[in-house]
Amino acid sequence: MGSFHARTLASLAHVEVVAVADPDEANARSVAEQIGARALFDPIELASSNELDGVVIASPDSTHVELTLAAMTQGTFVLCEKPLATSAADAIRVATAEVTLRRRSVQLGFMREYDASHVQLLAERPSLGAIHYVRAVHRNANDRPRPLQQIVGQSMIHDIHSIRFLTGQEITSVMAFGSAADQDSFRHVMAVCTLSCGIHATIEFDDQGYAYDVNVEMLGANGDALTGPPSRAIRRRNGAVDTFIGPDWFEWFGPAYRAQDQAWIDSIRADCAAGPSAWDGVTSQLVVDAIMSSLETGLPADVEPIERPSIYSK
Ligand code: ISE
């Protein structure tokens, strides 16, 4: 993700990518060379610099909080890949730092907010009337099963955020079911979520699917609307019709990532953080924790209620 963001940013107007940092020195050098930037090998050194307008954090999840806090302390704008943290308590540290500094400086990488199909679905919502149900489907084409924490914390967290931003509601409780692939890994997870207005949403996630695939459907009193794949050529051959959907999110959401990075640059130029916030990181992480707890106990789990600080007022 780091090299993808570096290349994307280097191609945008008004951006000079001055440095990239990666403890993998060969990778740092290779990406830096491609875009004419300096190669550094210590990410915290880059994040702590007081000479940057912005820094993108696309390192392993467990390093997000320390790197984000280091950059914020210097007054640097941050685009942090999701998840903000690996626990709600750690995500709250970042939100608390923003509240203390009385300034939002973090945008979180929930890039589906910039996907044309999701934007259109959000615009359609009023015409659907009262929403009865939301269905989120998400499939990865991994060849190996992953641990549950990664499935829920890295993948389903996108669907959690989609349900929140598309409905404008919070998830208040969950009941989750998982199918194990082996002793340590899962293949399929299903979560039934109750929203603050009382309706239900489901997240159905498969980690070893036929391709990368993401869809959200909203059923309302007046109709139904769903996101589609980004526009793709339809192939007709050998007596069959198919639409190429691709093996991963770079194919599917490439334009959305680019739009997200552009919006982040625009927000830096306007000196005002925008887009998904650290608070979205906190609330989504609380839902991740509830799903994990429900999977562990086999019982429904309430999402811990938390008061929204005023700098994150809607
Ligand atoms: C991955 O980390 C992403 O961020 C993708 O957007 C997501 O769809 C995928 O499931 C994750 O593993």
Layout of helices and strands, plus pairs?
Blueprint: H1 2-10, E1 19-21, H2 25-35, E2 38-40, H3 43-47, E3 54-57, H4 64-73, E4 77-80, H5 88-101, E5 106-108, H6 116-124, E6 131-141, E7 146-147, H7 148-167, E8 171-180, E9 185-195, E10 200-206, E11 208-220, E12 224-226, E13 234-237, E14 240-243, H8 249-269, H9 278-297, E15 301-302
Parallel strand pairs: 1-2, 3-4, 4-5, 6-10
Antiparallel strand pairs: 6-11, 7-9, 8-9, 8-15, 9-10, 11-12, 13-14
The protein binds (2R,3S,4s,5R,6S)-2,3,4,5,6-pentahydroxycyclohexanone (ISE).
Alpha-carbon distance between the termini? 29 Å
- Strand percentage, roughly? 25-35%
- Supply Rg: 20 Å
Portion of residues within helices: 25-40%
Low-pLDDT stretches are none
Q: What value does the average pLDDT take? A: 95
Task: Determine the number of helices (DSSP H or I, runs of at least 4 residues).
Answer: 9
Write down how many β-strands occur, each being a DSSP E stretch of 2 or more residues.
15
Bound molecules: (2R,3S,4s,5R,6S)-2,3,4,5,6-pentahydroxycyclohexanone
Describe the structure.
This protein is of the alpha/beta class. The chain is 38% helix and 27% strand. The chain contains nine helices and 15 strands. Strands 6, 7, 8, 9, 10, 11, 12 and 15 form an eight-stranded mixed β-sheet that branches. The chain has a three-stranded parallel β-sheet with strand order 3-4-5, sandwiched between helices. It has a two-stranded parallel sheet with strand order 1-2. Helix 4 packs parallel to helix 5, helix 5 packs antiparallel against helix 9 and helix 7 crosses helix 9. It is globular. The model has no long low-confidence stretch (mean pLDDT 95). Bound molecules: (2R,3S,4s,5R,6S)-2,3,4,5,6-pentahydroxycyclohexanone. (2R,3S,4s,5R,6S)-2,3,4,5,6-pentahydroxycyclohexanone binds next to helix 7.
